[in-house]
Amino acid sequence: MHTLPTTRATQPKKARSGPSAMVWMVALAVMGVVLGAGGGYIWLRLRQSQAAKNASVPPTPGPSAGLGATLNCPPDMVPVSGGSFKKGSSKEDQQSFGSSDESLLASVPVESFCVDTLEFPNKPGRKPRVSVSWLDAKGLCDAAGKRLCTENEWEKACKGPGNARYSSGDTLVASACNTGTAGGTPGTLAASGQFDQCRFNFGPSDMSGNAAEWTSTTFPGSTEDMTIKGGSFDSPSDTSRCAARKRGATTHKDANLGFRCCANPLP
């Protein structure tokens, strides 16, 4: 018997169905778009990062920013930076000391300035010049290329950045400054800078006690009398508070009354 030849082994297999060439082209196009977008995003981020590195950055203020130490003043003067400070005294102080002439505590702006470290003639170890009228004090400051301090300047220099009550600090320290006692026992005029503890914050010495000091400010409510600050060696310590003040005629002289000078910062 003859077996009929089979064609199964010799017949070509049909190709499996798969994506057409058109589908592959679309897929490749989409992948190109995605990769292109991703690459573009990365490139853009790199450009932004580089631009940020190249951008000029403003310098960060150092530790002395905002302090008087950044001002240019003569070597015998203390720099005081401008800004607002708390001028005057609290209601409690005014009630405690009967200080009706003092202004009520309020924020007051002041420009930067320089103030003498010591009372005139601003020489360590020498007694301040006293028994000087306001007119003479103004003339002596002018002759030195300076000027009398305004009341606001004087008080800010006395209080310092912490708005202390006394030039020695917020709390009165016994014998820190050259003042009289509550019982009326007077002291004597001392050489400038002798009371080492009677300076605080900005650093001017003897702003509380020793010699009282003229300012260039007319006393409130007066058209002629000038403002005197700082207390003195023969007055109670409460009168040496930075906010305390009294009045005096421009021709007035006293053995406990002197002055110190202020000036604008140097260029």
UniProtKB/TrEMBL annotation:
Renumbered residue ranges of the record's region Disordered: 54-73, 80-103
One Pfam family here: FGE-sulfatase
Keywords: Membrane, Transmembrane, Transmembrane helix
InterPro entries hit by this protein: CTDL_fold, Sulfatase_Mod_Factor_Kinase, SUMF_dom, SUMF_sf
Matching Gene3D superfamilies: paralog of FGE (formylglycine-generating enzyme) (3.90.1580.10)
Domain Sulfatase-modifying factor enzyme-like: start-end pairs: 123-262
Transmembrane segment boundaries: 21-44
GO terms, molecular function: formylglycine-generating oxidase activity
Domain of life, source organism: Bacteria
Protein name, per record: Sulfatase-modifying factor enzyme-like domain-containing protein
Organism for this UniProt entry: Corallococcus sicarius
